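dude i think i finally got it to work??
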Amino acid sequence: MARQNGILRKHGFTLIELLVVIAIIAVLIALLLPAVQQAREAARRTQCKNNLKQLGLAIHNYHDTNLVFPPAYVNAVAAGDLNVSGFAVRLLPYIDQGPLYNLYNSSVPVTDQPGSYDAAACAANLVVVRTQLAAWKCPSSAAPELSTPVIPAGALATGFPATTLTVPYARGDYCLTSGVRKAYSLYTYNGGISGKRNGAFAVAGSGGSVRSFKDITDGSSNTICVGERTGSTTMYVKQTPTTNPAIVGPSNINAVTNGVGWGDFLIGENWTMGTNNDATTSTVTVSGVTDDGGPCAINCTNARGSYHSFHVGGAHFLMVDGAVRFVSENVAAPNFGGSLTAFMGETTSVVD
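look at this
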């Protein structure tokens, strides 16, 4: 403020100066915002990696206690029986969730239609599987925290289930590896067919078994046992939700049987067949052998049989030895497919 000729004058910004300052601030924000977003995603990615490390430690502790890996899931002994339980429940005591494990009753299924089963025990199991567990959720995921598959009566087989099932599951963004099949098997073995569930973990129950470290003859550092796959009844193409019937299936059946939560036994059944880049499948021929599927196994879709994350460029995978690796979505099929199997004799491996 100055006095000239007895007149008090106020000095301030002119309109042009104000606009210049605003423009400079806008440019600085535009430069800083991507850096802030990248820093946040880096932190989320680190937490996601740590989640898998925690699950890997739990698997090793389970093996130390039981001398075998947990079964991928325990299949029902009788045809039409709903009592199928997944491997994640067995890991609860090893991720500091002992009270939750004690609440679960393995003699009854997770169902809102108990029938002849004990209704109170079934209700307790429902409480367990809809409990949110940080170790099972990737912070980068955009999927809902809770998914509620509605499986119509007779949707899975004639007369099965007998009534419509509605089960809410807390999200689970990691799944087991069941091996390779169909088109992805052709890509992996150059036309050879591997139709077995030859992943690190086996299905127990009716005709099933369990595996241990001695069964991982391809090497524990070369074999994947758990990978990222966004758990949700929302189906994605890349990172965009889709309602394409070719992907979600007739009457949405693929979505509701997608293995949507950590307590859903279907996260133990992820048998990789691959898709096209648009998440659809087609008939492919490799070395004269034809089957269905596609060449993409990472980040094209979260449909069961693929792996999926909201990270740029790939997804995290837990090796049997406990290491966690970030695998590119462009990884060669022989390398990735070979790492999904535990005893096929491959010498190749995925790399960071």
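The chain has a mean pLDDT of 88.
im so relieved honestly
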